[in-house]
């Protein structure tokens, strides 16, 4: 099955514009993790911080453009992986290894049509 | 006649058949629907053609066929390509075949139902539905939730299992830690529901033995975990006492007043075997202590032998270190009052007042008994009323009402020593 692993943590840890020392540390960890995943990694990316986010909101068919993320939360979507795993247990095992420099969450979402 | 057989087979082997189907198809809905279709087919054909040689095997085979049909229909719909259906077997063929051993996949199914990715409030219900074959209505009554609510919970849980790709496997050793606890607590919840029904005549009666058997299966499969043995021991001890739990009028008989001669010795001996295996050299877990408390009671040979209150108190002292909650504290207070006196027990209960005990029936019942033993009659009556207001089960209500009436009589006859 195909799963998306969505990485949520507090982006303030990575400094303004995500260029602090924590960023270099986490990027190095993701490089190692990506190598470990090998062919199981179908895709993925780190995301720039929410200050760079733009949201298009549709209300009653009317589309408006807004500055900022979809929702203001304590932890933000900071990156994602798209992986291939045999089942949820295999996906959980991989998700537990996704590097974090601090507390955070990895949300596992099965991908539509990815069974 | 053949429908009686169907009912008995469904009760005895239904869970096993559905579990085997679920493992085979790796799909809970297909397994359940196929089993339902097979039962319907049995209702249709057995009265006419006679009961098959191996009814459970017949049901399993017929359901397998129905499931394969359903899968094929589903695939055909998706690809819009017609596929030839398999030839329908004749009634004679069906009657002759013997599925042999239906594989026992119940444990695998328990791990699916108790996966941490399944909502906790759905795990026990799903296990009882799929592994023990209880109806949605039965489970809803046991869990005191409206049937539509429970049905929706089950649908949601099954959808989650299918869509998230929960594997139909018993997890490997490395994953035991988290997964096993979810399974044990689910079985505990399930057994607790069966145990509440002291007469064993109500909606839960059916699955007390199922849960008993499942804990045995689990202990066989995981022969290294003390907590698994402890649960297997605990449910056997508890179940062994069932014949002594009600008096002739259907009122509850407290543990210390139950006649040990009525207890089922064979189950107690089984419990002993499991408890010995749980009682290892390492630190004792909460479940092992709990099982030991049950065991300590069950080793009493007759009412002539004094009740083992001091051993029980010692075990509860150890238990509080592991699990310091209101349930353990109130149970400990029962033993404490017997060993050190009613006043000491009452003081211990007062210490719990701030911990949200107002809705906990055993707290009020114990408080009433201890107040009455201290001669505080008016307060005792109020405490009995508080317990009765919490809507106890039939047996417990009768017992509480009787004790309350005894206090009332004591007032009319001018008080006096009550015990």
State the helical fraction of chain B: 55-70%
Question: CATH class of one domain in chain B, please?
Answer: Mainly Alpha
Total of helices of chain A:
2
User: Reading side by side through the largest sheet of chain A, how are the strands ordered?
Assistant: 2-5-1-6
Determine Rg of chain B (CA atoms, Å).
Answer: 25 Å
Shape, per Cα inertia axes of chain A? globular
Please give the share of residues in helix of chain A. Answer: 10-25%
Major sheet attributes of chain A: 4 strands, antiparallel
Low-confidence stretches of chain B: 415-419
And the CATH topology of chain A? Alpha-Beta Plaits
Give the overall silhouette of chain B.
elongated
Average pLDDT of chain B, rounded to a whole number, is: 86
Strand content of chain B: under 5%
Secondary-structure element sequence of chain B? HHHHHHHHHHHHHHHHHHH
Task: Tell me the CATH architecture of one domain in chain B.
Answer: Alpha Horseshoe
Describe this structure in words.
The complex is a heterodimer of chains A (115) and B (419). With 115 residues, chain A is of the alpha+beta class. Chain A has one domain: Dimeric alpha+beta barrel (Alpha-Beta Plaits, 2-Layer Sandwich), CATH 3.30.70. Helix content of chain A is 22%, strand content 37%. Chain A has two helices and six strands. Chain A has helices spanning 21-37, 88-95; strands spanning 2-9, 41-46, 54-59, 62-67, 76-84, 104-110. In chain A, the strands form two sheets. In chain A, strands 2-5-1-6 form a four-stranded antiparallel beta sheet, with helices on one face. A two-stranded antiparallel sheet of chain A has the order 3-4. The model of chain A has no long low-confidence stretch (mean pLDDT 93). With 419 residues, chain B is mostly helical. Among the domains of chain B are: 2-96; 324-419, Serine Threonine Protein Phosphatase 5, Tetratricopeptide repeat. Chain B is built from 19 helices and no strands. The N and C termini of chain B lie far apart (54 Å). Chain A binds chain B through residues 1, 3, 85-92, 108, 110, 115, and chain B through 115, 117, 163-167, 169, 171, 175.
